[in-house]
Amino acid sequence: MKNLIVAFGLLLFSITVSLAQTGTIRGSVRDAKTKEVLIGSTVRVDGTPLGATTDVEGNFVINNVPAATHKIIISYISYQTKELTGVRVESGNTTVIETALDEGGTSLQEVVVKASRATNTEVAVITEIKQMKPIAVGISAAQIQKSQDRDAAAAIRRVPGISIVDNRFVLIRGLGTRYNQVMINDVIAPSTEVESRSFSFDIVPSNILDRMIVYKSGSAELPGDFAGGAVKIYTKRRPDQNFLDVGFTAGFRPGTTLQNVQTHERSGLNLLGLWGADQQISSSFPTSSGVFNDLNAAQRAAYARLLPNTWGLQSKNISPDFRFALNTGRRFDVGDVRISNLTSVNYSLTNQLANVDQRIYQSGATANDLFEQYNDANYSRGTRLGVLHNWTARFSPRFTLEWKTLFNQLSSTETVVREGQRVVDGVDVRSISERFENRSILNSQILGEHTISDLSKINWIAAYGYSGRWEPDWKRARYLRAAGSTGPDGQPTPYQLSVPSQPNPIDVGRFFSKLNENVLSVVSNYEHTFGTPENREPNRIRAGVYGERRNRAFSARFYGYQAVGAAGDLTRRDINTIFAPENVTGQPGGFSLLDGTKDLDSYDGFNTYAAAYVSGDVNFGSKANLTLGFRGEFNNQTLESVVVGQRRTLVNNDVFSPLPSLNFTYKLTDQQNLRFAFSSTVNRPELRELSPFSYFDFNRLADVRGNPSLKTATIQNLDAKWELYPTQNELISVTAFYKNFNNPIEEFLLPSGNGLSYTFINTKAARNYGVEVEFRKGFPNAASIFLQNLQVVGNASVIRSRVVLGQSVQAPDLSGQINNYDLTGVTDTERALANQSPYLINAGIYYTEPRTGLQWNILYNVAGPRIFSVGNLDNPTVYEMQRHVVDLNISKTFNKQLELRLGVQDLLNAQFRFAQDFNGNGRIDHDVTSRTANADQNVRTFRRGQYATVSAIYTFGRRTIIP
């Protein structure tokens, strides 16, 4: 590590002393009276062919100006031409001109031009990334529209070094979701999941996105809790014209749409992501499991009858998917104040059926020795109601006030009917899971932007966030019978409900959970420009503060049914009738209820975060720029729970993290940059990961529990990037990175003979390194019209990682007690990081024909095999295998008002395949289906099917205005 830093410093020094022999002139042009920027002003160096025009921000740059004293001539239609004499240009330096023009007559007084910065185009995003000090990549709303990606998760996978898990979670540079930081409009987004630190990108519909920027290197301005990357999601800010759009989409998925499935229904407005009051536990239930279980069987059965008998499965024909979007934008003036509003309402109803083949193998030396095998008919119906509502008031060019609100209400109704066999016991199994999940996510912000002077500006944000998640009445049941057994009539023996003496998560029971999280945030940033802008490149200093208070309340209740006396005949009834009120009596031959809730199944968590930073630019002439930064972060995590009737503090961690950063840019030419970056970052455990609460994952057949002994991980990051911008919308870049981890947090499989139990641990160390390549190429000068309308984009990443677990780790046992686990003979002490793909490839061909409004594109994506579930010597590590994905999209606009779209996603319908590394060589071998002693084995396989959508978007009364 020291050698790398020394080499980096030598390279930095050698570059800074190599300065060019010419200089640069840059600056801005404004209206002298209104201070509005003037777009398209002409700026030229008198007596030379050198010149430029101002961009949408009123800025211009003239490169390669000979070192001398020049006359600069600035002109703009309807304004007086201005001449600046004695402008001195020094070799290797930048001369900055900030000037204003006076109106030059009355003949064109009716022409009023007002501008707002364009941020959602491909050119704008490329320009923004080019000007950033940290190393970053991004995607614009324009490219998202071409790709017809439905949500942020689908869109962001086009970015270099990005892969997607479960169609919603983002991995950056092969690092797990916990190593990402997600921000919405510059405010940290809360985790959307109960069981992990993850942000579900599918909750953000694509039509409200302005752009997404992924920061790969750290800087003082960014929160320090990330290692893979920091993702900034920017929603649309304000409209550039008045409009009203309505869009409808119908979706068809072979193998799902029009198929007949077994599902369950819920009361309430499920189509809006809501549920009925009868799905909640009655307030009359005793809150203590001890008090409840001390009641007699009949009394407990009386409480059980208060729960609705909604166990019955229904046969349903799946309708096509449906999506609706309403978008409107308005701009108007109230006196001298420009007011604008942007509102978007989205609704979707989607369906997914998958037949999942699932196998669990016995530990030992024999390959393909089955322990259990199942086929899951997994049907899920999802709804999403989303609202974006933004207001902007521009009081003057120096003061803008905004209010941004984003709300999502989501639900998922999932029914799993599992048929299979416990091979080792010779028992047929039929299990049923009936689950409904509801999520509410709100993010509301008030933002202010103030230009104090031409050299100073400040912005601030006050934000409130809310995240709620409910699992009302998750019902599970398991039926068993002897494999191959038949009755006297020769028919198969009926299944019999498995009713244990004590509640457990595998057999019959009802689970309730709710999470409420409230977040208050305050952010402020200040920037000041130093120096004399007339004769050299100005240096800038930035400083800011970030404060956040997060309160989380989580509670879970679990009830299991109990057979009273001999209830054999009753247990043979099917799921539709078995729990009818007349069968839940608490009398011999009937059912009663037991409370399986533990004290640690509920907790209150608090996170207090305070940060301050300062950073500054040091310019070495016109070609070299060094940005130095320091960020200090204080974080307190507190976790409380009621244990044996007393409220106890289980976790109280105060951590201060000093986080230095360095970003250096050297301009090889006007179109080429070299970038180098160093930063220190951290990775804090999530409140859920600290909580000893235990949760059963039905689909994985695994128990997941937290670890209160987790510590904050620290990461040292090194990045180097070469980038070439041949034109405004073209780029080629190559990036290399190296990351060194201390105490990284990883998933750990507890050594247990009672099924799969996972927790979270601090390993000793890890490293992650790789290379990323990106290109974006157009053919505007080609002789062929077809090629002129064509654009090719692509990116590829090669990534390697290694985690060192050490000789022992701290983790809770099955009772929750923290132990030191000696790893000798238990698991590999070195392996790849979980979820890290060795390679990622994205490619796309985009065709746009402006004259006819026709667009089409073909997109390709693949991510290499990655660890899905960490294993040990008895239960091998499971890998998610690569899938080749091809998407096709076509759209056509008619009369500038009606747009029709056709999209086909996942054309190849490649199999989702999860395989375990039985032979322990750190990869999945090709002979996965063989029965040799060294064969690796499939543990989970399924296909989701292609997905075809047809969309119609109509614009009512669009009135184009000059923005």
What would you say this structure looks like, in words?
- The protein starts with a helix and ends in an 8-residue tail after the last strand.
- It folds into two domains: 2-101, Carboxypeptidase-like, regulatory domain (Immunoglobulin-like, Sandwich); 314-563 and 598-955, Maltoporin, Chain A (Beta Barrel).
- It has nine helices and 51 strands.
- The longest helix has 15 residues, at 2-16.
- The chain has 963 residues and is mainly β.
- The strands form eight sheets. The protein has a 22-stranded antiparallel β-barrel. Strands 8-13-14-11-12 form a five-stranded mixed β-sheet. A four-stranded antiparallel β-sheet has the order 3-2-5-6, with no helix packed on it.
- The protein is 6% helix and 54% strand.
